[in-house]
Amino acid sequence: MTLEEKRELLLKDLCGRLPYGVNVKDDFGDIIHVNIHDAHIEHLILRISYGIDKMLLRPLSSMTEEEFKELDTLERKSLDYCLMNEVNGYTVESIACDACVVDFCNKHHLDYRGLIPMGLAVEGSEGMY
Fold this sequence. Notes:
It contains five helices and six strands; from the N terminus they run αββαβαββααβ. By secondary structure, the chain is of the alpha+beta class. The protein folds into two domains: 1-59 and 109-129, no CATH class; 64-107. The protein has a four-stranded mixed β-sheet. β1 (22-25) and β2 (31-34) form a beta hairpin. α1 (3-17) crosses α2 and α3 (65-84) runs antiparallel to α4. It starts with a helix and ends in a 6-residue tail after the last strand. 19% of the residues are buried. The mean pLDDT is 84.
């Protein structure tokens, strides 16, 4: 993966997570909490893409039973909404369901883009958020 591809991927991922805050481990091993109010996004993306800092995320396999139930409830509400709404004759089910899943993953700091295996994030410890 090129540096530009890493930067593009990190921009998409970080911007979605900032409203919920994101923890980053810096090159000294300190944990820094970054949110939408204090993020210097370009600087953060550069530090992560060069491997200086790493986002702390949870693998999808770490989801709890409560989180599975919450996600199921969100998807059902989204599906109910979609079945009542159409765009140009097509239901918007998949778009709205995908959006609710992405928002859920961002809120719960889940690594749905595979950033941990790419080395752009590390697995955070339990209770990090």
